[in-house]
Amino acid sequence: MKIDILTIFPDFFDAFLRTSIIKRGIEDGYINIQTHQLRDYSSLKHNRIDDTPYGGGAGMLMMFPPFYEAIKTLKQEETHIIMTSPQGKLFDQKKAIELAQKKHLLILCGHYEGIDARVEELIDEEISIGNYVLTGGEMPAMIIADAVSRLVPGVIHEDSSETDSLQQGWLKYPQYTKPEVYEGYRVPEVLLSGHHQLIATWRKEQSVRRTLTKRPDLLQEIVLTEEEKKILKKVNKA
Ligand SMILES: C[S@@+](CC[C@H](N)C(=O)[O-])C[C@H]1O[C@@H](n2cnc3c(N)ncnc32)[C@H](O)[C@@H]1O
């Protein structure tokens, strides 16, 4: 999986690319994430990339030509181009799973008032990371790249992402680690039993319970198995 990120602030990504799981994923060759300076694609004096909007209005807008030239250079046969934007479709785990199947992502980061609207004609989709407006697309690009990268086989243990919250629609069951007891706070007894079937049943029930209490909206998206219907009934009664 290759991810190219087009930005006027490549330094923003230094810590992201040089830390923890993403760093290891890059070093081990599972993912290739590169930043590209948009200014390198400007033909103007001082590599200018913004100007005032036609028709008036506050702020500066990022110009069309640098994006056009950068896309022309960076786009390959199987490139999927994403523009970060508060006007895009909301990013979620389903979208991350879909994007993780792609060979090459090119993520465009806007800044200031955003990007000349002609760029919309060059992209595959617009993605928003939430219903709020940020100063730039750098954090959205990192969020997309991070969520997608950890789904690329090899980057993390696959069992781990399979049971993650949202991956199958449900929230993950609660997890505990050593010590068993601290200041009277105990780990649930069933997890110390060594009884795999009992633990699996408890976890499934907890997963359903958590989803029902914390994110009941998620249930509308899940096609319930017979087992899950029974658990839901039991949890609803409790
Ligand atoms: C200040 S915003 C531009 C907002 C634009 N004037 C509007 O009203 O739609 C500048 C850049 O930040 C990024 N951005 C801001 N909020 C975002 C969000 N919620 N999701 C994704 N990108 C966002 C985009 O790249 C955008 O071009």
Can you give a write-up of this model?
The chain is of the alpha/beta class and about 240 residues long. The protein contains 8 helices and 9 strands. The strands form 3 sheets. Strands 2-1-6-5-7 form a 5-stranded parallel β-sheet, with helices on both faces. The chain has a two-stranded antiparallel sheet with strand order 3-4. Helix 4 packs across helix 5 (about 140-150) and helix 7 (about 195-215) crosses helix 8 (about 225-235). The radius of gyration is 22 Å and the shape is elongated. The model has no long low-confidence stretch (mean pLDDT about 95). The structure holds S-adenosylmethionine. The site of S-adenosylmethionine has 20 residues, from strand 5.
Attribute tags:
2 domains, two-stranded antiparallel sheet, alpha/beta, binds S-adenosylmethionine, 238 residues, Alpha/beta knot, Trp Operon Repressor, Chain A
Topology at a glance:
Elements: E1 2-7, H1 14-17, H2 20-27, E2 32-37, E3 50-51, E4 61-62, H3 64-74, E5 79-90, H4 93-100, E6 104-108, E7 125-128, H5 138-149, H6 158-162, E8 181-182, E9 185-186, H7 196-214, H8 226-237
Parallel strand pairs: 1-2, 1-6, 5-6, 5-7
Antiparallel strand pairs: 3-4, 8-9
S-adenosylmethionine (SAM) binds near residues 129 and 133.
Classification by helices and strands: alpha/beta
The first-level CATH class of the largest domain is given as Alpha Beta
How many helical stretches? 8
Biggest sheet statistics: 5 strands, parallel
| Helix percent band | 25-40%
Bound molecules: S-adenosylmethionine
Please give the oligomerization state of what you see.
Answer: single chain
Low-confidence stretches: none
- The H/E string reads EHHEEEHEHEEHHEEHH
CATH superfamily of the largest domain: SPOUT methyltransferase, trefoil knot domain
